[in-house]
Structure formats: C-alpha cells, structure tokens
Amino acid sequence: MSVEQRKIKKVLIANRGEIALRIIRTVKELGLEAIAVYEKPDSESHYIRLADDAIMIGERPRKEYLDIDKIIWAARKTGADAIHPGYGFLSENADFSAACEKAGIIFIGPPPQVIRDMGNKVVARKIMEKAKVPTIPGTGNLAPGDAGIEQAKEFAGKYGYPVMLKAAAGGGGRGIRKVKNEEELKAQLPQVRSETRSAFNDDSIYLEKCIESPRHIEIQILADHHGNVIHLGSRDCSIQRRHQKLLEIAPADLPADVLESMYDAAIKGARQVGYVNAGTVEFLVDSQTNEFWFMEMNTRLQVEHTVTEELTGVDIVRQQIKIAEGNVLDIPADRVHMMGKAVQVRINAEDPKNNFMPEGGKTLEVYQSPGGPGVRLDGVVYQGYRIPTDYDSLMVKMTVRGYDWEQTIQRLKRALNNFLIVGPKTTIPFYLAICDEPDFQAGKFDTSYLETHEEIFNYPEQEREVAKLTKLIAEIHARKTNPYAY
User: Fold this and answer.
1) Which one from 177, 193, 300, 401 is the annotated catalytic residue?
2) For the segment 355-374, what is each residue's pLDDT rounded down to a tens digit?
3) What is the rounded distance in angstroms from the CA atom of residue 404 to the CA atom of residue 342?
4) What CATH number belongs to 137-209?
5) Architecture of domain 215-465
6) Is pLDDT above 80 for 477?
7) For residues 410 and 438, what is the distance between their CA atoms, to the nearest angstrom?
8) Which terminus has fewer CB within 10 Å in the chain: N or C?
9) Cα dihedral 18, 19, 20, 24 sign
C-alpha cells in the first residue's frame, strides 16, 4: 500500500487527565510540540502545565471533548498537524477520523472505515468469519418489534439459554445483557433497544451464544500503511465488574500453542479489515478447553497498554506516531519477548464496598506514591488534588513487573502497601485483598471472579496508624502549628 510520508511537528491531544499526560511525554521525547485541550473544569489540571501550548475548548464538562468541530478548530488555531485521540471520548469515532482527514490533519489512529466496521459488532464478526477467525455463534441485527423477538427465540432455541443480548454499536462494557430464559428475553429486548438508542444513537441489537465464565484475553497489534502487521503479545483482562476491566495481566497464562493460534487469528483479522495503527483484538477463551472466539476489536490505544510496554520495551504511543507519519514498522518479530509478568491496577477514588461509588469532591489530604524496582505510575494527582465530580475517578494507574507471577504479586502487594492516600476511599485495600486470595495467587480466574469470590470485599476499613500520623504532619505543615497540642 503506497502512502505519502508526512513529518509531524505538532500533536494535539484530544483528551484529558492521565492519558493526555502519557501521550505528551512521548510527543516531547520525539522532539515534537504537544498541544493540550481542556474544558473549564479542567483548567487547573496537571497535564496542561506539561504541554507546550493549551487551548480551552468550552465551559461544559464532558461535552466539548466530544465536539468534533471544537477539536478541529483547536487544531487549526494552534497549528497542530496531527491529533492523538487517546482512549474514550472521540477515540473510536469514525466521523472524527474522517473530519481530521477532510481538514488535512493526520489522525493518529485507524482510517474512518476501519473504525466504522469494527465499531459495529455484527459487521466485525462477518469480517472475522471471512478471515477464518473463530467467532461466537450469533444473529445479525434483530428486526424491530415482534419479528425481532421471534428471531431471538429461534436462536435461543437452537443454542440454548443463557444468551447475550448486545448493542451492535456498544463498547466499554455498555449495551450488554445476559438473558437466562424466554420470559427475560421478551422483557429485556425492547428495554435494551431503547437504552442503546439513547446511549449510541443506534438501536441495532443482536444475540450471541453465552460463553459461561470465560477468560477475557486480548492481543495487542501494530499495523502500518505498508501491509506489515505484528503482535505485541497477550493480556488477561478477566477480572472485571459489569464487563469493565479492573486489573490486567501480561502475558496471559495459556499454553504456547493456544497463544500462537490467537496471535495468528489477530493478525489475520487485522489484515482482513485493512487495519492501520495500534489496536487490540479481544477473545473469549473457554476456561476448561482453551477454545477461543473473537469478541471485538478496539480501534485505539487501550488503558492497559502499559503492561505490554513494560514487558516488551516497545513505546506503543511512539509507534502510533511513526505509523501515522507513514513510516514502515521497524520492530522485528524476534524482538518481541514478554519476559516475566506484569500487572496493572487502576487506583480509583471509589468505594468498592459501596458498589464502587465514586468519591468525587473529596481532596487528597495526603498523597505519597511508591517506587522501587518494577513499579511504574501513570497519573496526574498530587497532595491537595480534588477528585473531580465531572469526570471519571481514576487517580493513577500502577503497573508492576516481576520475573514470575509470585514475585509480581509480592511486588504489587509491597507497592500497594507503600501507597498512602488520605482523603477519599480508594480501590487500594480491594486490590490488597485480591493479592491475598489463593485462586488469584494460583492464577485461577475468569470473568466471574468477583461473583465467586465475594469474600475479597470483607477487607478491614480501619485507617492505618501511619496514615493518621502522616495526616497530622500534613496539618502541622499547613497550619504552622500542632492542632492537637494543648
């Protein structure tokens, strides 16, 4: 495939928070200019200070980051010749990729049609079937009304309950419903159609055979404009709540021949769709037989890309930029070795015991982060930081690497214990409880892990003595006096 090579000079990051800062770092390493955008509630955010330039795109939280015209305007205003979308927001929006193309701005991601095809789960499955990639049995888009219910009943009669009702345009765990019997099917189908219309402006839904308690495995791929496609190994993202990932591990603990088959399937699928840039092909794997099926493809950088970077030494954002410039992939397959084990945890300001309720509005009275061998932190918080109420509650992603699974867990536990956050409740004690759980230590987990290990939510609530002492010291520093002295 011939492609015009264009040297990028300025990259506008169409995102916020942790991922914006992570992209800014690589952009500046490459000697390029990094442009940040922000909504008014983000005007004091840390990532803005590290950019070479920043431009406010509006007042409304969570609205302007989704406004294609505003982002294109910001790129033109600042002279940016490329846009990196990060993850979330507009990252998997085909219209955004097309708008960049039309404006003569390089989109650091896949072409519009690829995003469109992979964003529709029914179309994506057909493409993978053509590439001879194993797919879960499923329907096409269900007809509206009673006809769709009859189609669904016929499919469930053939494959048996439970079945998965899914939005064709869904993603990020949204638009998915497990249906256990015909009565539920009749009740849920019109509800899901209404919900998906509201969430995705598209009421197309379909049915899939339910794979009970599978493992969720994803393969990171890179593809250039010249037809080269490589994989960067696997990640196990099985530990989830409501289809959303909590903790990610690389590589997946599967037999070598199974992993090789998955790598081959991911590369074949990427070639079939004409993929370009970084992407992730996701599979469900039967925990007993290791049989696997294509689930979806994420046409963007993943939150959990850090675990792959730590094990392979490949800066995925750097490769995204080089590919977008039209360069040939220069990573030979024999360079991709995943030595050891890595795990990423998302440290959120949430209360796991209260259905992971966000702690928005609270302030980090004390913030002390861990360090040492094999610990990587990606975050934008600091002592005095106020947890936003308008955005997600992610404070920092911590990625830990060890020589083997046992050392990785030990190192993760040490790093979590050395993480000191006073103010909001966090997911730290929840992850510490997981570290002590025998099945987790043995590497035995699937997508039903939280439901089958409810005891991990029984962790102690008491504030550690060191936290109390550190909080006191912080108060003394702030007030210039001991508030508890008589």
Assistant:
1) 300
2) 999 999 999 999 999 999 99
3) 9
4) 3.30.1490.20
5) 2-Layer Sandwich (3.30)
6) no
7) 13
8) C
9) positive
